[in-house]
C-alpha cells in the first residue's frame, strides 16, 4: 500500500501538512520544550535535553518496534532546485541499512500550502519510506528535528512525519516547542492521552479533553 492510498483510506480529506492538530478532529498537541523562567531558552542547560526526552518518549510509546511506518519528508522547492539534492542526506543518515532505501518513493505535487502559491510555481517533493521503527536512528533524528530553530547541529529543517500504518496515527515534531499526534480513532490515542496527560499543551487542553471525555 502506498502512502497516499493509506491516507485516502484512513484519513480521508486530510492534507499531510502542518499544523496537523487543527486539521483533524482526533488529535493531541504535546508540549516538548519547558522553560525554567530564564530570559533565553538558549541559556537553559536542561532545555534541549528535556525536548529530547519528551519527543523520544512519545515516539517510543506510540511506535512499537514491529509497526509498519511511513517515514515521510516534505521538501519544498521555490524554484532553486537545490532542495532535491538535500533529501538523500536525511534518509541516508537516519536509516540504518542501505538496502532499506530502495523502497524510497517520491511524489512531486503543487506546493501543499496553495494559499502561498498564487503563481503556481512552488512544488512539494514528498519522499516516503515504508519501514519499521527498528530501521531508523530515530533518537538522533528527533534531536536533529528539535534543533531547527535552535542553531544547533545536526539539524533537519524539512518537514518530517511518521505515519504509522499499524496504529493508524500520524506523529510530527514541528520544532523544539511541541509535536502533533492525530489518529483515525479516539481509542487509538487514549493510552497516550492518559500516560502523558501532563505534557498536553495547555492552550489546546480544553478541546483535547472534549474529544477524550466523550463516552
DSSP E strands, number: 7
Tell me what portion of residues adopts beta-strand conformation: 15-25%
Overall helicity: 25-40%
Total number of helices: 6
Q: What spatial form do the alpha-carbon principal axes imply?
A: globular
Main sheet properties? 7 strands, antiparallel
Low-confidence stretches: none
Strands of the widest sheet, in order across it, are 1-7-6-5-2-4-3
The averaged pLDDT comes out at 88
Helix and strand content put the structural class at: alpha+beta
Distance between the termini: 33 Å
Q: What string, H for helix and E for strand, traces the elements in order?
A: HEHEHEEHEEEHH
- Report Rg: 17 Å
